[in-house]
Amino acid sequence: MRNYLFIYLLFFSFIFSTKAQFITGSGEKLTVQMCLEKSKEREKRNDYRGASDFLNKAALIHWERKELRSAITYFQQSLTLNQKVDNKSGMYGIYSNLATIYADLEKFDSSLVFFQKSLDGRKSQGMKESIISGQINIAVVLNNLKRHDEAAKHLLDGLDLAKESLDLEQMKSIYGMLAETYQKAENNEKAKEYFDLYRNMHEMSQQKKIAIVSAEADKARLQAALAEAEKQKAELEIALKNIKLEEQEKNIQNKNEALNRLESNFTKQELAFKVLQQETDLKDAKFAQKQAENEKKIAKQRLYIGGIAGILLLSFVALFFIYRNQQQKKRANLILQDKNDEISFQQVQIMEQNHELETAVNEIEVKNNEITSSITYAKRIQEAMLPSLLNIQKILPQSFVYFRPRDIVSGDFYFFHHLEKEQKTVLAAVDCTGHGVPGAFMSMIGNEILNRIVAKNRITSPAKILNQLDKGITTALHKDETNIHDGMDLALVTIDKKAKTLTFAGAKNPLFYIQNNQLEIIKGDKMPIGGSEKEHKSEFVEHVIDISVPTTFYIFSDGFQDQFGGQEGRKFLVKNFRDLLFEIHTKDTSEQKQILYQTFKNWIGTEHKPIDDVLVIGGKV
């Protein structure tokens, strides 16, 4: 029995062609950021349909880029707006798009739910062609779920509608899918019945195509005959023109022969003139030679006289310089004596200054030891602020934290809090402005505000946490009264064990995660925490990831990828860091941490120094 996978391709090409038309229909090249801004503007004016249209466009841009999780997020937001205004047509279209994306992700149970919602809506509208397509879509998903009997029922319902509409192409496609479906259900009798129907319709279609091709061929033959006649006409015209050209060439040839005879006579006269000219040139050359020999003799005499005069002049100059040199030596000795006296005086002063400098260095060393002791104590305070690694390991056994401050204290810090009642875990990798003492102060402020938001107020939505953290930093630093521009970049995730989801939001920093041996990147929003008003055009956006399958994730600061090192003294770069994480993601987390430590150590070697704090957090869920 033949395989009819081409029918699946027909189905998916229909969906994707619809998607492409939706993106380009406006004629305007939009970015995701532009779409989100326009959507917010429409929503503020209570234009929920307009707002949903731009959310759809943002989702479709992500879909084209194969960023399927982001596409799902924006389609769901658009669905909420359509439900507000009861825009049923918009809702049914989004159901179909969500179903297709879940089919791309091979989440066929979710795909089936949304295709069924879309089909129910189309039935209520009485759109026969859309209902047929909906029945076929559901049958494809059911076959993937090995529910072949249910798939056959939907196909038969679609076949009845196709027959009513006399849609021969849809009928042929459904016959082929029924043959394949019954074959998978091991109902060979039914499979053969529908295969014969498919083959008969296919042959009828082919015969119709042959007739069309034959008619086109007859038309082509007539056009070829007409072209041949035109060609012969053109050849006759060319032959007439060639005859005229031959007559003109004969006239030109006769004229050229007469001209050649005249040129031959002129050449003989010209040759005689050249012979006379050469004899004259030879006489002039001999005269010039004699004149040159006379001038050479005169030059030798002048050179001899000049040489004697030069020797006398050089002798006089030498005597002058010897005398002047002796006078200069006398003056130099006097000056040297004065310099020696001055140097002796300066040496005494330098000895006194060295004593004063040594005293100052001792005082600075004492101050430096006091400052270092204070910063070292500050390090103990900062370490006490950080969450216990044992507590993190208790909640997330397959996790690690690789933390390497550049100085004694760090501008990077990590945040962890587990809410037992909600069964949710919040984890963040934070990179404060600066490093050392200024960065450490920012980390203390940021950690305190995060504790208040998550531990006290029990907020677990990453986007809400970042929005409140931004407001908290702005208030704490009195940014409306001061000129302080300090802030922080971070990546934050919430792990929901009940819902089996990982939700992410980022301020400039991304999330890397790996599922089914495929590394995905979700970028953070392009605005920092505590930035200027120009940098905050909207609120932070969160992204939901299904972790019902094994998932490895990483959040980090930019210290590792920006470090200079290697033989050429260049940056490690994001690409190399991403490839390193993908290479080690299957290993145990403790081994991953050791590999990161050794790789960083080997990269900086002995010739380079760390330029920033380094923080990498990884985990398997």
Span between N and C termini? 44 Å
CATH superfamily membership of the domain at 388-620: PPM-type phosphatase domain
Question: Which value, in Å, is the CA radius of gyration?
Answer: 45 Å
Strand order of the largest sheet: 1-12-9-6-7
Count of discrete alpha- or pi-helical segments spanning 4 or more residues: 15
What's the total number of strands?
12
The CATH class name of the domain at 388-620 reads: Alpha Beta
Give the biggest beta sheet.
Answer: 5 strands, antiparallel
In N-to-C order, the SSE pattern is: HHHHHHHHHHHEEEHHEEEEEEEEHHE
Q: What general outline do the C-alpha atoms trace?
A: flat
- Approximate helicity band: 55-70%
Which residues sit in consecutive blocks of at least 5 with pLDDT less than 50? 1-26
Give the structural class.
alpha+beta
The overall pLDDT, averaged over residues, is: 82
> Strand portion, in percent?
5-15%
Query: What is the architecture of the domain at 388-620 at the second tier of CATH?
Result: 4-Layer Sandwich
Question: Can you describe this structure?
Answer:
- Among the domains are: 5-197, Serine Threonine Protein Phosphatase 5, Tetratricopeptide repeat, CATH 1.25.40; 388-620, PPM-type phosphatase domain (Phosphatase 2c, domain 1).
- The protein is built from 15 helices and twelve strands.
- It has helices spanning 5-24, 32-44, 48-64, 68-84, 88-104, 108-125, 128-144, 148-165, 168-184, 188-385, 389-395, 436-456, 462-476, 574-584, 589-604, and strands spanning 399-404, 412-419, 424-432, 488-496, 501-507, 511-515, 518-522, 543-546, 551-556, 564-565, 570-571, 614-620.
- A hairpin with a 2-residue loop joins strand 6 (511-515) and strand 7.
- The longest helix is centred in the middle third of the chain and has 198 residues, at 188-385.
- It is flat, with a radius of gyration of 45 Å.
- The protein starts with a helix and ends with a strand.
